[in-house]
Every structure is written in C-alpha cells, then in structure tokens.
Amino acid sequence: MSEPTQTTPPSAAAPPSALGRGLAAARRWTHPVLVANLVAQIGIIVTGGAVRLTGSGLGCSTWPECEPGQFTAKFHAETSYHQYVEFGNRTLTGVLGVIAIAVAILVWSDRTRTRSYRLLGFAPLLGVVAQAVLGGIVVRMHLHPALVSVHFLISGALVALSLYLLHRSGEGDGPPVPTVGPRLHALGTTLVVLMVPVVVLGVIVTGAGPHSGDDEIAYRIAVDPALVTRFHAASVWLFVAVLVATVVVALRTAAPDAVRRSLWILLAITLAQGVVGYVQYFTGLPWVLVGIHMLGAALLVAGAVRVPLTMRTRATTSADPRATDDVTAGVTAG
C-alpha cells in the first residue's frame, strides 16, 4: 500500500514576511490616518480659500516652482505676504499627499477586506495628484475663474470620498442592509442629491463675485451675481425643507441614534451656513465671512454624505477575521 499523502495543516503554513507583519501592525493606525485625511481635505479648502480671498493666487508666479529658479517662498525687498500664503497652501498639499500615500498603503494592504474597498484607498491619492496638476494649470492660466471653480469642486468631491472611506473602514463587507424604512432612506439619499446644486451654485456665486484670487485680475464668471445668488438661495431653502422633513420622519419613526445624531449635526451646519451666507451678502462679502462660508460648505458636504451612511449596516463576512456576533439591526417602519 502506498503511504497516504500528507497535507500541511494551516497552523504549519509559512509565517508572514517581516513586511507583512509590519503592515499588519501598522494597520492599527488606519482609522487615525483616515481621520487625518478627512481633516486635511477640509483644511486644503480653507487654505485654498485664503489664497483666493487675500488676492494671493499669483503670489507664486509659476509652477511647480514658486518663482523661476526657486521652489520655496523667499524674503527679499519686494516680497509681499501673498507669496507666503500661496506657498503655504502648496506646502499643505504636500502634507496631504503624504497622508494620501499612507491611506493607500494601509487600506490596500488589508487583505481581510474586499477588493472594492481596498481600491477605494487610492482615491485620495489620485485626487491630490489631479489637484496638484490642476493647480499648476490654474497658475499658468492666470487664475481663470472656471478652472478655479473646478479646483474647489474637486476638493468637495474628495471630502465626500474621504468621509465615505472613513465610514466604510468601520463597516463589514457584507451587503448593505437598511436600518430605517424606505421613506426615511429615500429622504436621506435626496439630501445628498440636493447638496450638489447647493455647492455648485455657491461656487458660481463666488466666481462671479469680487474675489477672483488676485487683485489685478478683473474678469469673473460672466453671469449676473445677484441672479445666481437667488438661485443659490432657492436651492438652499429646498435643501432645508427636505432636511426638516427628514428630521421629522426620523423622530416619528424612532430612527436609530446614529441617524438622528447625523441629522441634527447636518441641521446645525446648514443653519450656520445660512446665517453666514445672508450676513456676508448684506455686508458686501467681507473676505473673512466668505472664508468661513467655504469651510461651512466643506462641512456641509461631509455632513450630507454621512446621513444615508448611518441608515444602513454591513455585516462582517465569514472571510473577515474581525467577524463578531453582532446582530443586524431591524428595519424601522418609515
């Protein structure tokens, strides 16, 4: 008789490489790094706004150098603060790039997760590269208002993607299961849809206004600022109406705490944005208030995207060693 073939038990498998062990140990930093990425994506909107609102858009006259023959801002007799504001924003872009690389490595190396989730880890890095290239084009095109507006919209999309990635990192990889009724879930999704024209029209309003990014640039987006402002205000009021309806339905159907909390946060952000928006309009668009409004727009994007994400749960899969005995929450009648 021939001897039975012996198989190697799983416990006797080759141990992971030193690199594998290092990456596994480093993954405890995944959540903090994803939080840092989201904060930095919002922060780059604020510093980019500061560049535009202080008229520092051409503080560095070329790209990727700040000035011909020098990559950094340098003091000399003719130096103004504009050069440092613009170079500071470029420096934060570099920091954001480092964070994005860390996100890509940590997310992609997690072999316990699905391929779709791991590929999502490259989104911040690709976005930063695209923004850096577009930033160079914006400078070389002398702050063309359409390109400046696209610059902001890409940043808004990166905030949304970064918030989604952060939320997904805490979920399992099973199919999404709603934790609320269909009516409330539809309202939450509608909020995200309505948020888009609110932000886009807001960007057009700013592009048509007095803050072009450089004191010597006179041209703007060729639209009537007052008319576009009215459209923007109408989109905001529609968003508020749907948001209030969503809050009411969430309270009446005893939605999960996470859902109600996300709605209250979004309502607070929206009301604050409304107050700042009307005050800046009636006070001649002071740059400080416009900058605060830009920060609020980034927070609005993150807040709106988070709402429908709290209305579902994803169970861990059997292939995921993090699997627990958590029971999927029941669907609340909506």
TrEMBL record:
GO terms for biological process: heme A biosynthetic process. The chain crosses the membrane at residues 91-108, 120-139, 145-166, 187-211, 231-251, 263-281, 287-305. It is a multi-pass membrane protein. It comes from Sediminihabitans luteus. Pathway: Porphyrin-containing compound metabolism. Pfam families: COX15-CtaA (PF02628). The keyword Transmembrane helix applies. It is found in: Membrane. InterPro entries: COX15/CtaA_fam (IPR003780), COX15/CtaA_HemeA_synthase (IPR050450). GO terms for cellular component: membrane. One of its GO terms (molecular function) is oxidoreductase activity. Its main location: membrane. Keywords: Cell membrane, Disulfide bond, Heme biosynthesis, Iron, Membrane, Metal-binding, Oxidoreductase, Transmembrane, Transmembrane helix. This is Cytochrome c oxidase assembly protein subunit 15.
